[in-house]
Amino acid sequence: MSNNGAAIFWAVVTVGVYLAARVAYQRLPRWWTSPMLVTWLFCGALLLGLQSDYKVYLGGTHWLVTLLGPATVAFAIPIHAQRVLIRKHWILIAVGVVVGSAIAFASSWILAWVFQLSPEMRASLLPRSVSIPFAMAESQRIGGLPELTATFTAITALFGAAIGDGLLSCLPFRTAFARGAFFGMGAHGAGVAKARELGQEEGAIAGLIMIFAGLFNVLAATAWMSL
User: Is the pLDDT of residue 178 over 70?
Assistant: First the structure.
């Protein structure tokens, strides 16, 4: 199969598996039926089974990554829609984003240190705790591999959403704000989807926390690189 043919094949497979996984998730909404997880595992297993080059896969699915640009710009819509909520809780949102980002960065740095990762791998791991569009931009700024960062970010989101329900039952988070912030900061995109299952306000708060955490981390990385 030519490279062009292989690229088309992987694009069709990725989109097809994701759409099928969405249907399955609607019928059986469990963390292990998450479309993101199912697509990631299926395509990864198929890549290994066919012994295909990952660069060819990226060549066929790079247009999906390109769509992250408009998706990032679209984050302005929920910010505008929730402006009243932002004005009401802006101090809590700001504190939560800063503290949550600091904890996420510290945990990533500790993981990189424990496993003795190379500088490039470490730079790819550090932004893993914000949504993929922001994480990839931050990774590129600090010398990481954006595609690898996207993988780390997806794993973090899936893991956070999977254990979130269990942790929520053990933690004293009773308000919609606390529950939404918990999922938005801990599991970003997947967390927002999980928070929306709990309620409209939880989903709105989770989305705002995710967006502001991404913006804060990108700005912080830019400031750090300019020093």
Answer: yes
